[in-house]
């Protein structure tokens, strides 16, 4: 096996191969022959799937690395040295930790970490400004880092089959996101602004059994919601809920109050936050004028990223929402989602006026 491996590498060096396939070779260690001489300077893609690698080495070369289906447990700090790396596939390993140094891979465009044992992602993932594809499906993630919204080039995000119970509302700010797949998690609600971006066209949330409400922004998108809205006692989920007739939806944990068509006066905190927000946007353009002393950090963060925007007039909302349900079974989309009788579109409005005038089909 060793002589055959050396021969394969030697041929690739002599013939200046751009692709090198070392799949299914039962390798336990990274072949150091790859690091010798300058003969492999033309190599662009290295495929090493279905081996028995347990670690990575520091490998200074511009490569696309396909290392899935090994037994790698940790992505080491040395990975940060591969500053020109564009594609990294570590799917089907035994990864438990991704080190913060992964944020140094500023040229990385595709990151695949599916089928591992990750419980969290480092916030530094948000430093990957060129990242277009992120697949972290089939792991043990409970949540996603808020800084993920800083991945300005991210187009495809797949987090199927994890343990997510919420999605940071900051992800609604991703300017390039086209497809979001979160099937098979534990989601009971979605961010109010999900679907507000015109770029986002495909959203899949199948098999989140507690999920009963879809933001009305998703109405004209391609959505998957099979297996959602299963019957459940509200008391089983400790979240704020809103009911209309026999339908009940859960609301994001950040929602502090629910308004109705009879609540014409907004809470004082909501009025203050909206006033401060408009002062910032219309005049100052910079929230740095607010020191942490003058405003608690939690409220300052809320000003940067509101709870959501009114589905009728786009007014920012911070603590209170006026929800309105549109059962999916009563919309023209019912034929596409047969059997999804307990799932509803939810319009989140900012006032009684918007609540009364909002029409999903208009």
Taking all residues together, what is the mean pLDDT? 84
- Beta-strand percentage? 15-25%
**First CA to last CA: what distance?**
67 Å
The CATH class assignment of one domain is: Alpha Beta
Instruction: Please report the number of helical segments.
Output: 4
Calculate Rg over CA atoms: 24 Å
Low-confidence stretches: none
The tally of strands reads 20
CATH topology of one domain: Leucine-rich repeat, LRR (right-handed beta-alpha superhelix)
Q: Could you describe the largest sheet, including whether it forms a barrel? A: 10 strands, parallel
Bulk shape: elongated
Helix amount: 10-25%
Helix/strand-derived class? alpha/beta
Question: What is the N-to-C succession of helices and strands?
Answer: HEEEEEEEEEEEEEEEEHHEEEEH
CATH architecture annotation name of one domain? Alpha-Beta Horseshoe
State the strand order across the main sheet.
1-2-3-5-7-8-9-10-11-13
According to CATH, the homologous superfamily of one domain is Ribonuclease Inhibitor
Overview of the structural elements:
Among the domains are: 1-109 and 118-129, Ribonuclease Inhibitor (Leucine-rich repeat, LRR (right-handed beta-alpha superhelix), Alpha-Beta Horseshoe), CATH 3.80.10; 257-357, no CATH class. A hairpin with a 2-residue loop joins strand 14 (241-244) and strand 15. The relative contact order is 0.07. It has 362 residues and is of the alpha/beta class. The strands form five sheets. Strands 1-2-3-5-7-8-9-10-11-13 form a ten-stranded parallel β-sheet, with no helix packed on it. It has a four-stranded mixed β-sheet with strand order 12-20-19-16. A two-stranded parallel sheet has the order 4-6. The longest helix has 17 residues, at 268-284. The mean pLDDT is 84. The protein has helices at residues 2-14, 268-284, 297-304, 352-357, and strands spanning 19-21, 45-47, 64-66, 74-75, 87-89, 97-98, 110-112, 133-135, 156-158, 179-181, 202-204, 213-215, 222-224, 241-244, 247-250, 257-258, 308-309, 316-317, 320-327, 344-349. The chain has four helices and 20 strands. Keywords: Leucine-rich repeat, Repeat. Pfam families: LRR_14. One of its GO terms (cellular component) is cytoplasm. Residues 100-183 form the Disease resistance R13L4/SHOC-2-like LRR domain. This is Leucine rich repeat containing 28.
């Amino acid at each position: 096996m060793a002589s055959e491996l050396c021969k394969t590498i030697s041929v690739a060096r002599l013939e200046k191969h751009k692709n090198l396939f070392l799949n299914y070779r039962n390798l336990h260690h990274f072949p150091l022959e790859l690091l010798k001489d300058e003969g492999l300077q033309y190599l662009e893609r290295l495929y090493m799937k279905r081996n028995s690698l347990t670690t990575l080495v520091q490998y200074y070369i511009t490569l696309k690395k396909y290392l899935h289906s090994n037994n790698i447990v940790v992505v080491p700090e040395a990975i940060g040295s591969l500053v020109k790396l564009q594609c990294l596939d570590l799917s089907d390993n035994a990864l438990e930790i991704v080190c913060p140094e992964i944020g140094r891979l500023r040229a990385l465009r595709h990151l695949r970490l599916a089928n591992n044992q990750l419980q969290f992602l480092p916030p530094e993932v948000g430093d990957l400004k060129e990242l277009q594809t992120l697949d972290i499906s089939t792991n043990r993630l409970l949540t996603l880092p808020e800084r993920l919204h800083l991945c300005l080039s991210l187009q495809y995000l797949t987090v199927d089959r994890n343990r997510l119970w919420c999605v940071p509302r900051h992800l609604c700010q991703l300017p390039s996101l086209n497809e979001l797949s979160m099937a098979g998690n534990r989601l009971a609600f979605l961010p109010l602004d999900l679907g507000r971006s015109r770029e986002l066209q495909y959203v899949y949330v199948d098999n989140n059994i507690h999920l009963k409400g879809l933001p009305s922004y998703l109405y004209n998108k391609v959505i998957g919601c099979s297996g959602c809205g299963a019957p459940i006692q509200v008391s089983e989920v400790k979240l704020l809920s809103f009911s209309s007739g026999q339908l009940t939806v859960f609301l994001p944990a950040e929602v502090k109050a629910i308004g109705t068509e009879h609540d014409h006066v907004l809470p004082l905190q909501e009025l203050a936050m909206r006033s401060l927000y408009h002062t910032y946007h219309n005049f100052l353009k910079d929230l740095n004028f607010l020191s942490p002393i003058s405003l608690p950090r939690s409220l300052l963060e809320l000003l940067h990223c509101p709870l959501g925007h009114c589905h009728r007039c786009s007014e920012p909302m911070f603590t209170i929402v006026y929800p309105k349900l549109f059962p999916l079974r009563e919309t023209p989309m019912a034929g596409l989602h047969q059997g999804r009788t307990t799932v509803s579109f939810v319009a989140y409005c900012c006032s009684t006026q918007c609540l009364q005038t909002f029409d999903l089909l208009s």
